[in-house]
Input
Amino acid sequence: MIQLRAFRAIDEEETCYEFADGHKKVLEGFNLGNITTNNVSWAYNPNVYVIMAYDRDSRDLLGGIRVQIADGIHPLPVEDAVSDFDASIHDMVSHYALSGGTSELCGLWNSRSKAPNMGVTINLVVAGMALCSQLPITSIFTIVASYTLKIARQMGYRIETSLGNNGEFIYPNSNYVARVLSMNPRTLEHTFGMYKEKIIALRENPNLERIETIGDDNQILYSHDMQLKNVGVIDYAFK
Output
């Protein structure tokens, strides 16, 4: 059984370091250990929320994802990633933040050695989207490489074509083309039906247990502990 659990970063400092260590190892496996967002400063940001995936029997950490709310003080990871290429990302984030609150789905990783072909990645993304209903936001950014663009679009994200080269950036190095995307996580307007149904079901029942069929016949029980115990009030500092 795989369990997904959500919490506010500042409430569990030690757990955040466990997340960061696992993420770092995955990045190093792709020779991306020096990526700009590979740090743990987010653990002290009161507007960051974390979801961790565990093997419920062994308690091994299998992966994680974060939602960071823009506050005008701590740049979103997407701002740090692409502002050198296109500084207008800051104005875009500010606009979305002041128009109902904005955020970023970021820091996604899963352990290829401990959780290969177990559906952890997609279930973390679904959980991240479900978590948004508990947060004071009406939009959410993400940045993806070409090989994850399809799933991001199926989740409902649309490319911000006004940024970079029609939405494209060479990031984090010359081997990758990245794109900045955004969506409304409340309406799920463009989200494919199979994912929309899962997101809504998890919002209605944060302790949902569900059997996921991975591949042709591999069935895995996923359990969730997604009700946040502490949600901060955003004190915007945008100019």
